[in-house]
Specification:
Length: 257
């Protein structure tokens, strides 16, 4: 695994420490030391503060994540995989949940800017919800090429991201959408909402509309691209799994290999 490109660093997502299951702890004697480390950490937290203690403990937890990811990938079948890229706080049962941040249900801790750690033509479906805006445009293009590589013939990639066209049309129009009650933060002026979509407190690196995303998918090699609606999918496993709270602002696109 190409760890030299930062596949084990946690740079663009944040999450609580990765916790091993009791079954994994019993199966692997090395992980039994976690309880001892946790006990040792508590007085250190009181002495130097939780944030600094977390930084000091991070290498250990990263090492555990590497070991778990390596073992999980080695045991995967060669085909028929269902992958949830950038799962964040929404891991899904029955899917391979991939995220750069550690989490109790994240089987593959991976920096998606380093490519995908799956065999070519091994995936039936790839689901990625509000991820691509968190990486650069170039990294997104590379990720789309990787998705094409690992999908089987007829496999489906489903993407969602904030719909930049919707925000900008509202800004130059009546602004009603920018005042939608489902937005979590209040604004002083309509341009604030546009800035939030494009920047998200420094977490968003690029914005997309249907035209740009379709062009990038074509460049990645996908021959069939469809704009979709919330909960509607060409693949039965990807119907009705979108996060409802983001539906009002999202662009949904599917591409078939």
């Amino acid at each position: 695994m190409p760890s030299e490109c930062g596949c084990w660093n946690n740079n663009y997502r944040s999450k609580e420490f990765y916790m091993l299951s009791e079954a994994a702890s019993r199966a692997n004697p090395v992980t039994q030391h976690k309880t001892l480390i946790h006990r040792l950490k508590q007085p250190i937290v009181k002495l130097i503060g939780r944030e600094r203690a977390n930084r000091l403990a991070a290498p250990y937890y990263n090492w555990q994540a590497r070991r778990r990811t390596t073992a999980f990938l080695a045991a995967l079948p060669e085909s028929a995989l269902y992958v949830n890229l950038g799962c964040g706080y929404r891991p899904m049962r029955g899917w391979i949940n991939v995220d750069q941040a550690r989490g109790p249900e994240v089987q593959v801790v991976w920096d998606l800017r380093c490519g995908l750690p799956f065999r070519s033509e091994s995936c039936f479906a790839i689901f990625s919800e509000h991820l691509i805006e968190h990486v650069s445009k170039d990294d997104t293009q590379n990720l789309l090429r990787e998705c094409y590589r690992v999908l089987q013939s007829g496999g489906v990639l489903r993407l969602s991201t904030p719909d930049a066209e919707k925000f900008l049309r509202s800004y130059i129009g009546d602004g009603e959408f920018l005042r939608h009650p489902n937005f979590s933060r209040p604004i002083d002026a309509p341009i604030d909402r546009v800035n939030e979509m494009m920047r998200e407190q420094g977490q968003h690196l690029w914005s997309y509309d249907a035209e740009l995303l379709t062009l990038m998918l074509k460049r990645a090699g996908f021959p069939a691209i469809t704009r979709q609606s919330f909960g509607v999918s060409l693949h039965e496993r990807m119907r009705d799994i979108d996060f409802g709270a983001r539906a009002f602002e999202s662009l949904y696109i599917e591409a078939v290999k």
